[in-house]
Design brief:
- It is a single chain.
- The strands form two sheets. This protein has a four-stranded parallel beta sheet. The chain has a two-stranded antiparallel ribbon with strand order 1-2.
- About 20% of the residues are buried.
- The chain is about 40% helix and about 15% strand.
- The radius of gyration is 20 Å and the shape is elongated.
- It is an alpha/beta fold and about 180 residues long.
- It has seven helices and six strands; from the N terminus they run αααββαβαβαβαβ.
- The termini are far apart.
- β3, α5 and β4 form a beta-alpha-beta unit.
Length: about 180
C-alpha cells in the first residue's frame, strides 16, 4: 500500500468521512502542505496537552477545567451529559450556569457497556452535600433512558433531586 492509499484509508476511518470525502481531503492536504503541516502540529499538541478534567471528565489542558474552577458557577446543580460535545453545545447556547459531568457514553448491555464502563461512579463521588440537583441530559433512546434510570435508582444521596432534561416537540413544531 502506498502512502497516498494509507492516508486515504486513515481519513476514511473518521466518522462522517466516506471514501469520496477522504479522497478529496487527502488531495486537499497534498495541495496545501502548509495547512496540512499546521494541522498535524495542532493534532500532536492536542494529543500531548489535552486530558480529562479530574472533576467532571470533560477535556481540558489543566488538571481542573475552566468550568469546574469557575467560582461564579452554580455548584448546586450538575448536568450529566453523554459526551464532551454536549458540554460545548450547552455552553454555546448559554443559559445554563451550573456544573457538568461527562458520562462518556450510556449504559448499553447489548454492547457490553455497563455502569462501570462509563463515568457514573465518578458522578456519584461528586455528590458531597453541596449538590442539590442532578439533571440528566442523555438521548431519549433506550440506552439514554437506561442510563438515566440507573442514575436515579442508584444515586447515593436520595435527598438530591434527579431530573431529566426536556425532550419532545420543539416550540413552534407540530406532529403533522
Amino acid at each position: 500500500m502506498d502512502r497516498l492509499d494509507k492516508l486515504i484509508e486513515n481519513l476514511a476511518s473518521f466518522p462522517q468521512l466516506g471514501s469520496k470525502s477522504s479522497i478529496r481531503f487527502a488531495y486537499y492536504l497534498l495541495n496545501h502542505k502548509d495547512k496540512a503541516l499546521s494541522l498535524a502540529k495542532d493534532i500532536e499538541e492536542a494529543m500531548n496537552n489535552i486530558h480529562r478534567c479530574n472533576i467532571c471528565c470533560n477535556y481540558s489542558e489543566s488538571e481542573v477545567c475552566d468550568i469546574c474552577s469557575d467560582e461564579d458557577r452554580d455548584r448546586s446543580t450538575i448536568l450529566a451529559v453523554e459526551n464532551e460535545e454536549n458540554v460545548l453545545r450547552m455552553e454555546k447556547e448559554g443559559g445554563y450556569n451550573g456544573l457538568y459531568h461527562v458520562l462518556g457514553g450510556t449504559i448499553n448491555l447489548m454492547e457490553g457497556i455497563g455502569p462501570d464502563e462509563i463515568n457514573i461512579n465518578e458522578l456519584f463521588k461528586r455528590l458531597d452535600g453541596s449538590v442539590k440537583e442532578v439533571i440528566i441530559a442523555t438521548n431519549p433512546d433506550v440506552a439514554g433512558n437506561a442510563t438515566a434510570n440507573y442514575i436515579k435508582e442508584n444515586i447515593p444521596d436520595k435527598s438530591i433531586k434527579v431530573t431529566r432534561i426536556g425532550t419532545g416537540v420543539p416550540i413552534g413544531g407540530d406532529l403533522s
